[in-house]
Predict the structure.
Amino acid sequence: MKQISKGVILNYRRGPKSQKNYEYLIKFNSCNSRKDAIALIGRKVVWNKNITGKIIAPHGNKGVVRVRFKKGLPGQALGTFVLLL
């Protein structure tokens, strides 16, 4: 059986003049280094039981990952939890 882990949506992936509305930065409790984040690439993430995304890359060295969702999340999703499947 797969282990289910919780993560927090930190923010959109963004630059100084642009924002990617389908990509989010997420921090998982069990992920504390870049090495741990690389091990999660390709896994699925679920928000609110119906919107799914996929981990595509690590972000930085503290274990934050980038997740691309098929459908953009509402702004109220920032700070809420996602499940790692």
